[in-house]
């Protein structure tokens, strides 16, 4: 049966069709009226084609962004009018008949071709128009291609795709849940899953060996440039009878293959095996657990050395330093100092190494002469180096050093160009002390296996216990978190007890896992790379909303459809809800 709107899509029209009568369909992108002859650029999902109108009556009532069907003869363009920027640039369609399929009855809120330059709130309100923009649309097509490749790759590796529930039980850990009231069970609520964590572990207990899912996750948390509020997608996978190293190999194979296939031309991608950096090492050398390995600068610890010197602001404090071999003007030092004070530092000490290997800078006089050679050896100093110092309590010193390292790398243009540099960060602390309450809680995933098992939990200071937890980081962006899971009910009970959850809470909130672990649970491990962040990196977008078809704004609002919105009193009554003033 023939299509009444079009014979072909625009990418299918070529010089081989010259002389043929064809019907095309699409949107009117541009209109150029030259008096006796007019030109209309028609766009469909695949391409743009020029249509020539030699009968002026055909142009009557035609407006930009109308959906139209046009019948005509394909002809060769005059050579001087060729458009090498488009595939159909050597041909045009001489229109004999135009039918408006979808009218435009309001003024356009913006020009589709330049929609990315429009305010974000306007773009999101009229997202269906924004998506007509070629670059915006191409990002969504690209997203589909990447997800299709991920599915293919996981299937090739023997993983089985299984969907887990969207309506599930609320849990007391992690980010805030989105909760859904129950109509049938008064006063009870479902939650949207923050991740398929419990279900994928239960699949391993069920005897499935390798599971994966392009999983929607829902968290009621604030937006950032690299985090979409409300919902996001991840490549969630889990493996039975697997070690941390086996999960690493799968992550490396899938991510390297994906980035090599979809990275912009000329980009380098880290080959397996990825560098593995402990959390402790990451905080020392990079000042963050999300290290950007494109930046060649490294942080060193000079705390012990400065306890032998007379500079009072460094005494009794953690002191970190960064050595840079670059020329820096006085203006650069002033701007860096301004940045340092802007992030909360009291100042920014430094030393420059002169031609005679002596030091120049405000801290020089506080280093005894007999210790200067020792310091040069410790810091690896050479002529032309500048070394910067950050001092505070350990956590703040690490933070400041990390921020200064990033600022130096960016402002001195030190970052490796056109590269995706991956690493694993592992050996995270299992527990941490909550700053306000001073209570011990889980650092990351409460379902992780503690290193040392039950014995470690029973005999060690909880703050010294490490977990089999790991992240994948690419160019300073956390792409994935994962862990070797706790599969032993006794260890699970003790871990939650340390974090302040008694056995009754464990049974009520995590009853499925608690009970399942009583029936021969296998060792299992997995991870979940974030798809939205992968796409953001691959497309070099600064905002994650550019790779999502219908994103919310930074305030978690759907400006297009008006969510969140009000509901009727009847709807509230049906789910036993009363809204308080």
UniProtKB/TrEMBL annotation:
This is Aspartate--tRNA(Asp/Asn) ligase. GO terms for biological process: aspartyl-tRNA aminoacylation. Residues 143-551 form the Aminoacyl-transfer RNA synthetases class-II family profile domain. Gene3D superfamilies: Bira Bifunctional Protein, Domain 2, GAD-like domain, Nucleic acid-binding proteins. It is found in: Cytoplasm. The record marks 34 as: Important for tRNA non-discrimination. Belongs to the class-II aminoacyl-tRNA synthetase family. Type 1 subfamily. One of its GO terms (cellular component) is cytoplasm. It holds the Pfam family GAD. Aspartyl-tRNA synthetase with relaxed tRNA specificity since it is able to aspartylate not only its cognate tRNA(Asp) but also tRNA(Asn). Reaction proceeds in two steps: L-aspartate is first activated by ATP to form Asp-AMP and then transferred to the acceptor end of tRNA(Asp/Asn). PANTHER family: ASPARTATE--TRNA LIGASE, MITOCHONDRIAL, ASPARTYL/LYSYL-TRNA SYNTHETASE. L-aspartate binds at residues 173, 219, 444, 485. One of its GO terms (molecular function) is aspartate-tRNA(Asn) ligase activity. Homodimer. The keyword Ribonucleoprotein does not apply. Keywords: Aminoacyl-tRNA synthetase, ATP-binding, Cytoplasm, Ligase, Nucleotide-binding, Protein biosynthesis. Residues 197-200 are annotated as: Aspartate. Its main location: cytoplasm. It comes from Marvinbryantia formatexigens DSM 14469. ATP binds at residues 219-221, 478, 530-533. The gene is aspS. It catalyses: tRNA(Asx) + L-aspartate + ATP = L-aspartyl-tRNA(Asx) + AMP + diphosphate. It is an enzyme of class 6 (ligase). Its EC number is 6.1.1.23. InterPro entries: Aa-tRNA-synt_II, aa-tRNA-synth_II, aa-tRNA-synth_II/BPL/LPL, Asp-tRNA-ligase_1, Asp-tRNA-ligase_1_N, Asp/Asn-tRNA-synth_IIb, AspRS_core, GAD-like_sf.
């Amino acid at each position: 049966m023939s299509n009444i709107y079009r014979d072909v899509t625009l990418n299918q029209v070529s010089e081989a069709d010259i002389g043929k009568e064809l019907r095309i369909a699409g949107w009117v992108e541009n209109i150029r009226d030259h008096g006796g002859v007019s030109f209309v650029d028609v766009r469909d999902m695949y391409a743009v084609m020029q249509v020539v109108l030699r009968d002026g009556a055909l142009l009557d009532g035609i407006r930009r962004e109308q959906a139209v069907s046009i019948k005509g003869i394909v002809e060769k363009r005059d050579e001087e009018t060729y458009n090498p920027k488009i595939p159909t640039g050597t041909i045009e369609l001489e229109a004999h008949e135009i039918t408006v399929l979808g009218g435009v009855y309001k003024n356009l809120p913006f020009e589709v071709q330049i929609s990315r330059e429009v305010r974000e709130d306007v773009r999101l309100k009229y997202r269906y128009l924004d998506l007509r923009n070629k670059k915006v649309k191409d990002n969504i097509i690209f997203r589909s291609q990447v997800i299709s490749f991920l599915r293919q790759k996981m299937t090739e590796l023997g993983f089985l795709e299984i969907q887990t529930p969207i309506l599930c039980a609320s849990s007391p850990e992690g980010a805030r849940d989105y909760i859904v009231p129950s109509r049938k069970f008064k006063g009870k609520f479902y939650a949207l899953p923050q991740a398929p964590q419990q279900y994928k572990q239960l699949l391993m207990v069920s005897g499935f060996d390798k599971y994966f899912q392009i999983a929607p996750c829902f968290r009621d948390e604030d937006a950032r440039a690299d985090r979409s509020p409300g919902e996001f997608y991840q490549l969630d996978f889990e493996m039975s009878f697997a070690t941390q190293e086996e999960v690493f190999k799968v992550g490396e194979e899938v991510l390297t293959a994906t980035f090599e296939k979809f990275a912009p031309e000329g980009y380098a991608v880290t080959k397996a095996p990825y560098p593995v950096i402990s959390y402790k090492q990451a905080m020392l050398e990079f000042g963050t657990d999300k290290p950007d390995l494109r930046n060649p600068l490294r942080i060193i610890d000079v705390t012990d050395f400065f306890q032998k010197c007379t500079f009072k602001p460094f005494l009794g404090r953690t002191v970190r330093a960064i050595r840079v071999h670059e020329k820096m003007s006085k203006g650069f030092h002033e701007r860096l100092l301004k940045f340092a004070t802007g992030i909360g530092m009291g100042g920014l000490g430094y030393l420059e190494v002169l031609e005679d290997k002596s030091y120049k800078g405000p801290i020089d006089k506080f280093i005894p002469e007999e210790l200067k050679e020792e310091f040069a050896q410790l810091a690896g100093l050479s002529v032309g180096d500048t070394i910067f110092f950050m001092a505070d309590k350990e956590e703040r010193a690490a933070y400041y050093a990390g921020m200064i390292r990033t600022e130096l790398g960016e402002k001195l243009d030190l970052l490796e160009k056109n590269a995706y540099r991956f690493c694993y960060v592992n050996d995270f602390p299992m527990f941490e002390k909550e700053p306000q309450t001073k209570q011990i809680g889980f650092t990351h995933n409460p379902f992780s296996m503690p290193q040392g098992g039950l014995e470690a939990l029973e005999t060690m200071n909880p703050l010294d216990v490490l977990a089999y937890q790991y992240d994948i980081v690419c160019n300073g962006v956390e792409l994935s978190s994962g862990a070797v899971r706790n599969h032993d009910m006794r260890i699970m009970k003790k871990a939650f007890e340390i974090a302040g959850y008694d056995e009754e809470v464990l049974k009520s909130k995590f009853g499925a896992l608690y009970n399942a672990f009583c029936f021969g649970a296998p060792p299992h491990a997995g991870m979940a790379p974030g798809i939205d962040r992968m796409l953001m990196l691959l497309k070099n977008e600064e905002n994650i909303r550019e790779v999502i078809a219908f994103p919310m704004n930074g305030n978690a609002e759907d400006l297009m459809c008006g969510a969140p919105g009000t509901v009727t009193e009847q709807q509230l009554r049906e789910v036993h809800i009363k809204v308080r003033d």
